From TrEMBL:
This is Putative toxin-antitoxin system toxin component, PIN family. InterPro entries: PIN-like_dom_sf (IPR029060), PIN_dom (IPR002716), PIN_toxin-like (IPR002850). The lineage of its organism: Bacteria, Thermotogati, Deinococcota, Deinococci, Thermales. Residues 1-111 form the PIN domain. It holds the Pfam family PIN_3. Signal peptide: none annotated.
Length: 131
């Protein structure tokens, strides 16, 4: 399966390193699935994790794992497609890599990904399906 995980998924994993979101993240990245990312996603993960006072070593470990096991994509032009303009970079990533699934803590903000053919799952649904 091809997947895009939004920032909230990574933050949930970082805030509870022994929890189900972190377990699912590791399973997805070390398994047969293709997890796509962009530099804009990594930048946002770092910014949000720092604001939430996540230990820098945990942030570095997640970024290192994502870079080692994920598939880097350079998205095309970013358009104003989402209710939250801060999510436009994520929609551009989805547009470029055409994932089967997008997992998000804020699925209502990412309805535009469904136009690209992706199935949109909440974090809970993603854990249930892939955890």
């Amino acid at each position: 399966m091809k997947l895009v995980l939004d920032t909230s998924f990574y933050i949930a994993a970082l805030l509870n390193p022994g929890g189900p979101t972190a377990h699912t993240l590791v399973k997805l990245l070390k398994g047969k699935h293709q997890v796509f990312y962009s530099e804009a996603l990594i930048k946002e993960i770092r910014e949000v994790a720092n604001r939430k006072k996540v230990e820098p070593r945990y942030i570095a470990a997640v970024v290192l794992l994502l870079r080692a096991r994920g598939i880097k994509v350079v998205p095309g032009r970013v358009r104003d497609d989402s209710p939250d303009p801060k999510d436009d970079f994520l929609i551009a990533l989805v547009r470029k890599c055409k994932p089967d699934y997008v997992i998000s803590g804020n699925p209502e903000d990412l309805r535009a990904v469904q136009k690209e053919g992706a199935i949109l799952l909440s974090i809970r649904e993603g854990i249930k399906q892939f955890g």
